[in-house]
Design brief:
single chain, elongated, binds zinc ion
């Protein structure tokens, strides 16, 4: 069998994947590599249709399709991880026109047998790589990288188990057959509790500093303790969040993620108004007030 495999998304920049508790681009590569290993070990031919860097999302997509269509493939498989609102969970597979072909149903069933909810086979005609590839195609959303339980399950079973689940489905190797479960009723999406800014901060702390915070938007001690000291010269997502918070309490700052003099001066005024030492350095006490997010 000749299989086109796409590790979903570029690594970073245009076309990169979703970021939740885990990073989609990193995990599509972990699962994809394991899947390719299995195929090769078992004598199948692999055409790797993965692109790590592209100038835009459209360039990324068209290059993937071009790589796939240059060959006569039996299958085109694109690995992805979902992200929604932190509450949604489970596995789903997208096929052209939502065709419920057996292999796709089996992919869902096999992955869900590892402990994920089975969301079923869905219409992927709107997805470029599903629509444009000539081979029988499947885009697999393994689970949700922003859902704490899915991430826990994923960390427990590991990428190799997911790769095996897919491999078994498409090669019809002997596996205990799992009855496809009906897709669960759509998860009601109550307005998430907590503070969206805090949620963004938790994601940033997890991704950048390897923290393991639950992304719940709740301003608890765990989140506070995870916050690093940030001062002039800093750059990036955490600085940008500090700027956003300062703006939300009335400061006038450009959200450029650069901790320069203007940001430092704003922090000083913020500290002064709250009876803190005016050093312009965002340490634990200042973070405490930033987490509160209250105006004076
Ligand atoms: Zn994706």
């Amino acid at each position: 069998m000749k299989v086109g495999v796409n590790y979903g998304h570029t690594l970073n920049g245009p076309g990169s994947g979703a970021v939740g508790i885990l990073n989609e681009s990193a995990e599509t590569r972990n699962v994809g590599n394991a899947f390719v290993d299995l195929l090769i070990k078992n004598g199948h031919e692999v055409v790797n249709c993965t692109i790590d860097k592209a100038s835009s999302q459209n360039v990324y997509l068209s290059q993937v399709v071009e790589m796939a269509n240059r060959q006569d493939l039996d299958y085109f498989i694109s690995f992805h991880f979902n992200v929604y609102n932190g509450k949604a969970f489970g596995t789903e597979v997208y096929t052209y026109e939502g065709r419920q072909f057996e292999d796709a149903l089996e992919v869902c069933a096999n992955i869900s047998a590892l402990g994920f909810a089975n969301r079923g086979v869905k219409n992927g005609t709107g997805l470029y790589v599903v629509k444009k590839t000539k081979a029988k195609s499947m885009l697999i959303e393994c689970c949700f990288v922003d859902n704490a339980e899915d991430v826990e399950t994923y960390r427990r079973v590991g990428p190799v188990a997911i790769a095996e689940a897919v491999y078994k489905a498409i090669t019809n190797t002997n596996v205990e057959t799992v009855q496809p479960q009906p897709a669960p009723a759509p998860t009601p999406t109550p307005k998430p509790s907590g503070d969206d800014w805090v949620r963004c901060l938790q994601i940033e702390l997890n991704n950048q500093l390897g923290k393991d915070l639950v992304v719940d938007g709740i301003k608890g001690p765990k989140t506070l303790n995870a916050c690093p000291t940030v001062k002039k010269g800093a750059k990036g997502g955490i600085t940008k969040l500090i700027q956003e918070r300062l703006v939300s309490v009335g400061f006038n700052l450009t959200l450029d993620g650069i901790f320069g003099t203007k940001t430092k001066n704003a922090v000083k005024v913020f500290q002064k108004n709250r009876g803190l030492t005016e050093d312009g350095i965002v340490g634990p006490k200042t973070w405490e007030w930033l987490l509160k997010g209250t105006k004076m």
